[in-house]
Amino acid sequence: MQHRYSRNRITNLTDGDGNVLHDQEEIGAEAVKYYKNILARQPELQEIWNSINFLPQPHKEDTVIWQGNISGKFSISSAWEYIRKKKAQSPLADLIWFSGHVPRYAFTLWLTSRERLSTMDRPHVQRIMSTNVCVLCRESPETHGHLFFERGYSRELWEVIASKVHLNIPNMNGIPLLMWAATNCTGKKRFGHLLSRHALSIATYFVWQERNRRVFQNQWKTCRTLTGEALHQLWTLLLQHTKPIPEWAMNDWNLQGAELSSSAVPVHLAHPYSGQEVSVQPDVQVQLARPSSGQGDSAQPEVQVHPAHPTTGQGDSSQPRGDVQVQIARSMVFWAEIAVSFRSARAQPICLAE
Hints:
It contains 13 helices and eight strands. It is mostly helical. The protein is elongated. It holds the Pfam family zf-RVT.
């Protein structure tokens, strides 16, 4: 019990035994004893009390100092470094996480390296699915090692893509293949290594997407079609590459004169009379037959659309895509709309034209 006769001053104090203390030193000693007993009941408070190595200065304002870095200023990055558990870097880190890697490809490859994709051999998937047979080969049980890229469908896709990037792959699959690639394809200043890393992640991603398409949507794509789509994505990544590309890669991937603009959708042309819509890829070769003279605006020149070859860029006039032939009226406004559409469209090759 304490008694105050003036502001901020204790004149006497009653201890636990009922004795009244008037001496200031005795009052101070009793107060220290009291608070030490409180701190002793809570180890956390006692630890904080023991960490105080300075005398309080009540006439100054308190300041907060962040101990997570040398500057004493808080930042999210320093907080993350302070609380996270630090472990040795994975040998696959440079294979998966590098500048310019598409996030969805990198994330899928990372899950593959950890064997955390929901393949049929995972216990939580086995409780849902009635079979564990691989949907790509319909013979062997589905595991990470089998799916990427043991044999059959996925192996054929991987071999085509690897040959396109001049990568001599060993007879490996799954984690051993990733470890081999991490050792032989992670040179930071070698363009061929960068291309191989992109190729591996894209192949992994497209195989996983095809597997999910078959399991959940009951839809199928041939290996040739899927390989063409994967090569197309790799071609698009090369167009977005900001650093100089070696001449051999420019020639192999038909990058000479190719440009990438903001639009990623194909051009859609509508017949001026019937209204039937025809989807035209932006980088197809278009041949406009001259209208015969003397027929006025009613003349309808013929438009033939030929898909471009994925590597040479040459149009395949023998088999136009879907035998598309569009009759379009010779209208100045309509021709202007076509010109604007093709100028604003993104260059995009049609891979593996039949």
